[in-house]
Amino acid sequence: MKQRSSLNRRHFLRIVGAAPLALRTSVARGLPSSPRLAYVGSGCGEIYVFQIDGPNWTLMQIVACKAPASLTVHPNRRILYAVNQVASHQHLPTGSVETFTLAPDGRLAAFSKTSLSLSATLPRHLALSPDGKRAVVAIHGGGAYNLLTFLDGGLRPQITGILKESGCGPTALHQLSAHPSMALFDTTQSRVLTSDTGSDRISVFAVNETSLTVHQRFATDAGSGPAHLLLHPKGDILFVANQLNCSLCSYKYDPERGRILHCIQCIAEDTGGPLALHPSGRTLYTTGGSEDDVIQAWHIDRTTGRLNRLQSWHQPSARSVAITAERNTLLVVSDTLDGVLRFAAEPADGRLHPPTLAAEVPKPLSIATLSDSV
């Protein structure tokens, strides 16, 4: 049965605004707590560091960072990477990646800032390989991908490969040229799945220490604008949120051959934003919509790969989504609310409880979490 709930800014702030952040608790009791640490990038040129005890978030630190559009924690849990979505760095037309070291308590210390390749403007996303040895940066403005390899245990990124893209789409406002939006390593770690909003395509790249090469091109519907990617933990279903036509598609993927095989399903309503997956692998969360953004929970049929909607929440603009790997909590960055919404999720089926405003952050752009478990 579908459940549809509505939440606008005035109503939400009336619910939670009277209580201090430390007292804003979830209505769901007995559910697992949030991860221990959260890092939230702000469009004001900062990263906010929070210590988390269940629904209670305590601000520990604010550090300077130019324009943190994407945050990623290294598997060794000692490094944070921030992709700066800027058009110039050191008076050159390029973006940058900042490296921060993590203290035992999670506090950040700036370590280095790496320039991307020339014309690599407005980078949007960094995908880190599960082994932490390399990363791929999707460069939205410059229409390219940069391959980074790491020295000193991940502290010093170096550009070892560049792949320049071309192409366009029918939507003049957004598709005059290629605009890579996201990259994602598959379960083999030897291939990267990518989305190109400007040219209506998903690609599979072969990757090693020094190069990115095209392994497959897969065209999406004209004007769809694929942006956000998520791969099922089994590695055989790829979910793609199309930003321009607000649709959601699922594809059968063969990780052994590195091939997108066919479209399983396309859902053309209230989607197109960031994606997240319940730790059980049985529930997909989507965001986006043409007017007011909608957070939806979908049951994943593992036999067919098809989605059935469980629940919908209307809420103001969701800029980013993160769901913890160990906990049943969905975290949604909202630039309209200037903060992070916390949804407790049922362990059994992933249904969401009413949200709380976990933290206030001006102009939030991105989020990364770090669990207290090793």
UniProtKB/TrEMBL annotation:
<dbReference type="GO" id="GO:0017057">
    <property type="term" value="F:6-phosphogluconolactonase activity"/>
</dbReference>
<keyword id="KW-0313">Glucose metabolism</keyword>
<comment type="similarity">
    <text>Belongs to the cycloisomerase 2 family.</text>
</comment>
<dbReference type="GO" id="GO:0016853">
    <property type="term" value="F:isomerase activity"/>
</dbReference>
<protein>
    <submittedName>
        <fullName>6-phosphogluconolactonase (Cycloisomerase 2 family)</fullName>
    </submittedName>
</protein>
<dbReference type="InterPro" id="IPR050282">
    <property type="entry name" value="Cycloisomerase_2"/>
</dbReference>
<dbReference type="GO" id="GO:0006006">
    <property type="term" value="P:glucose metabolic process"/>
</dbReference>
<dbReference type="InterPro" id="IPR006311">
    <property type="entry name" value="TAT_signal"/>
</dbReference>
<dbReference type="InterPro" id="IPR019405">
    <property type="entry name" value="Lactonase_7-beta_prop"/>
</dbReference>
<dbReference type="Pfam" id="PF10282">
    <property type="entry name" value="Lactonase"/>
</dbReference>
<dbReference type="InterPro" id="IPR015943">
    <property type="entry name" value="WD40/YVTN_repeat-like_dom_sf"/>
</dbReference>
<keyword id="KW-0119">Carbohydrate metabolism</keyword>
